[in-house]
Amino acid sequence: MTNNSSSPLLETVPGATPPGDTDQHPTHMGVAWHYGNPLTEQRHCATGALVDRSHRTVIRVSGPDAATFLHNLLSQKLDDVPDGFSASALNLDGQGRILHYLDVTKVKDAFYLDISAVDAESLVDYLRAMVFWSQVEITVTDLGILSIIGAEVPDVGGEFSRQLPFGAWVRHDVFVPRGALVDVAKRIIEQGIEPMGLMAYTAERVRAGLPERSLDLDDKSIPHEVPALINRGERIAAVHLDKGCYRGQETVARVENLGRPPRLLTLVHLDGSAPTLPTPGTPIVMGPATGRQRTVGRIGTVIHDHEFGPIALALLKRAALTSQALMAGESAILVDPDFIPAEEQSQAGRVAINRLRGSETQQ
User: Fold this and answer.
1) What are the tens digits of pLDDT across the range 63-85?
2) What's the rounded Cα separation, in Å, for the pair 43 and 113?
3) Of the residues 43, 255, 309, 315, which has the maximum number of CB atoms within 10 A of its CB?
4) Is the CB of residue 233 less than 8 Å from the CB of residue 197?
5) Boundaries of domain holding 267
6) Spatial CA neighbour of 272 closest among 203, 333, 320
7) What is the four-CA torsion angle of 43, 237, 67, 146, rounded to 10 degrees?
8) Which residues are CB-neighbours of 254 under 8 A, at least 6 positions away?
9) Number of domains in the chain
10) Distance, CA of 346 to CA of 257 (rounded, Å)
């Protein structure tokens, strides 16, 4: 089920370089890591950058019951969305822990789900196991994704396209049969849109606080630990807060209304002078270097950013967010101040409970 074939753009776009030994991870394999100058490539976002994301697996769910079938399984509201609707979604377990993180797009009467190739097989197995009497068909397609960041999508062909928010940018995704990837990419580049490797794309993903499940989350992660996944205001994220009746929804509702997550996914800055940078999964400890330390989190994606230098995503306990004494391996780390909540969201359920307790005390 995982996408074992390399993108044809690795052989046809000048300078295309696959991940090196220190960059290799299953979520990075199969596409160009950079095209010769990754830090310069990241700057292309300001004028238009093309990213080969054909390493993701695209799944088609069709049939008369496709909308209600997916609506009942995923965290996104999908039962009555219009043609062209696009958003992210989660598949949770019974305790509300994140099993799959995917993007979903409706095209006419079908839904296209795209997900990291390392998670595709388990997602397809789960969907097929849940069909029962639903009239749906689940197919793994041969579509690849070419993403354009920082520019409008030119008329270059492909099966269909969509747009999704991506940090400071809008990401335009063009879904293309794998056999046509080279031709479509060539037409995009001819429009003046520069190739950008997955390294620069990953730096932008980290800056946006968007996780790669197998890199940045663990088997205890719940949606509210990742603020970028929760609908707020006009932002359509992966978790729709006004729908229920899907697996794990009780945890989402409880944390939203009564509590707060014990950890948060944050952007951290790494000490670039350290002999080696930490790798995903490295524990984060808090405390003086020569004194007692305790583990307060874990490092996820580590990447070099063209402005910030080495940065990473980290799952951290709330008590550690403002600490000046955090270490991951040999590197000192500091949480980006923009990722430290200025104040907690007001939980309607907690306010109601406090009001009730206050009235009981007065009696």
Assistant:
1) 999 999 999 999 999 999 999 99
2) 29
3) 315
4) no
5) 262-339
6) 333
7) 10
8) none
9) 2
10) 8
Confirm if 71 and 204 have CB atoms less than 8 A apart.
no
Which amino acid type is present at position 311? Answer: I
DSSP string, 136-189: -EEEE--EEEEEEESSPPPS---SEEEEEEETTEEEEEEEEEGGGHHHHHHHHH
Q: What is residue 244's predicted lDDT score, i.e. its pLDDT? A: 81
- Which amino acid makes up residue 299? I
If we measure between CA atoms, which residue out of 1, 6, 55, 308 comes closest to residue 198?
Answer: 55
Task: Specify the CATH number for the domain of residue 107.
Answer: 3.30.1360.120
Return mean pLDDT, the chain: 92
**Residues ≥6 apart with Cβ < 8 Å to 242:** 77
Please determine, for residue 341, whether its predicted confidence score (pLDDT) is greater than 80: yes
More confident site: 45 or 258: 45
Check whether residue 293 and residue 330 sit in a common domain: yes
Collapsing DSSP to helix, strand or coil, 329 comes out as coil
Confidence of residue 361 (pLDDT cuts 50, 70, 90): low
| pLDDT tens per residue, range 290-307 | 778 899 999 999 999 999
Residues 2 and 101 in one domain: yes
C-alpha 49/C-alpha 66 separation (Å) is 34
Q: How many CB atoms lie within 10 A of CB 241?
A: 16
Give the model's pLDDT for residue 359. 52
The answer to whether residue 362 sits within a structural domain is: no
In a domain, 254, yes or no: no
Angle, to 10 degrees, between the axis of helix 249-258 and the axis of helix 348-362? 50
Token representation of residue 53: 């994301």
Two tokens, residue 235: 């932002």
CATH of the domain at 276: 2.40.30.160
What's the pLDDT band for 353 if we cut at 50, 70, 90?
very low
**Residue 10 falls inside a structural domain:** yes
Taking a C-beta distance cutoff of 8 angstroms, is the pair 221, 98 a contact?
yes
Query: Can you give the pLDDT at residue 245?
Result: 87
DSSP strand pairing (49-52 vs 57-62): unpaired
